[in-house]
């Protein structure tokens, strides 16, 4: 399994580069300072390329899937569904590199990789009702990702429209994970998530924010590469708390914080959402 900590190239939607030029240039500058290749994806329909671009499994294997999320599969939203074949046509990726799951709807933001598992929420079942037998769906996913799948609850559905794991939990090292500050805003849900992860052998660290803030999940939604981690800032006092805690966990990697409060509050996406990082 290719982890974020092994990646050396990062791609962004051309729309993001054009519409949020200052943020894009700030992110690009830091990545290039650490010898990370940066490029843009053409022919995308929105900023959030994590969700529709193929998921890298090995050096030469990517999982390609159906991208038709429920939150965009409605009147007035279809124009924001990217046909992934269009941005892929500009890249040097041969068809033989893809494992095709064209009958399975997945959001890339609902795929958090560790060396031992892929973490997804139960939204994977809701968006694929054609699989009445959930075990068959899990089998297809595990065969494609070449690892076991752990299913986490999709909590706070009225507020969390996406149901993505990349704002809930992230891999740290070995069998250590970082979880959002559920104690502040959804303690029961946090306990459920922690229990499942600990039953699978993980040590779970919770982001220790002193009080509830809007968009605290964004601190978990960082962009990690082989050389540097970029953490979103919300222009709040908690920015420094989150940064210092991440530095204590990822002490072998350089961590840079870049403010992006407007993008995060307006669209509900942060740095992992807006990037596609791979090992080339």
From TrEMBL:
SUPFAM superfamilies with a match to the protein in the record: Pentein
InterPro entries given in the database record: Peptidyl-Arg-deiminase_porph (IPR007466)
Ranges in coiled-coil conformation: none
Keywords: Hydrolase
GO term, biological process aspect, one: putrescine biosynthetic process
GO molecular-function terms, A-Z: agmatine deiminase activity; protein-arginine deiminase activity
Superkingdom in the source lineage: Bacteria
PANTHER family linked: AGMATINE DEIMINASE-RELATED
Name of this protein: Agmatine/peptidylarginine deiminase
Source organism: Hoylesella shahii DSM 15611 = JCM 12083
């Amino acid at each position: 399994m290719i982890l974020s900590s092994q990646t050396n190239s990062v791609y962004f939607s051309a729309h993001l580069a054009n519409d949020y030029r200052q943020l894009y240039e700030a992110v690009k500058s830091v990545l290039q300072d650490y010898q990370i290749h940066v490029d843009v994806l053409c022919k995308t329909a929105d900023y959030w390329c994590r969700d529709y671009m193929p998921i890298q499994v090995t050096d030469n294997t990517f999982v390609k899937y159906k991208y038709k999320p429920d939150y965009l599969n409605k009147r007035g939203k279809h124009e924001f569904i990217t046909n992934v074949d269009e941005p892929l046509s500009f890249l040097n990726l041969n068809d033989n590199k893809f494992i095709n799951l064209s009958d399975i709807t997945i959001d890339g933001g609902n795929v958090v990789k560790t060396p031992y598992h892929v973490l997804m929420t139960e939204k994977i079942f809701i968006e694929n009702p054609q699989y009445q037998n959930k075990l068959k769906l899990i089998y297809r996913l595990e065969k494609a990702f070449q690892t076991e799948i752990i299913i986490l609850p999709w909590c706070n559905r009225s507020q969390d429209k996406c149901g993505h794991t990349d704002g809930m939990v992230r891999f740290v090292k070995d069998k250590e994970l970082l979880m959002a500050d559920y104690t502040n805003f959804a303690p029961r849900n946090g306990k459920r998530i922690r229990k499942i992860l600990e039953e699978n052998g993980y040590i779970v660290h919770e982001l220790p924010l002193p009080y509830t803030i809007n968009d605290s999940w964004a601190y978990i939604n960082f962009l990690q590469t082989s050389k540097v981690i970029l953490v979103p800032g919300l222009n709040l006092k908690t920015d420094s708390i989150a940064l210092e805690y991440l530095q204590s966990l990822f002490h072998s990697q350089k961590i840079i914080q870049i403010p992006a409060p407007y993008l995060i509050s307006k669209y509900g996406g942060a740095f992992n959402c807006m990037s596609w990082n791979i090992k080339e």
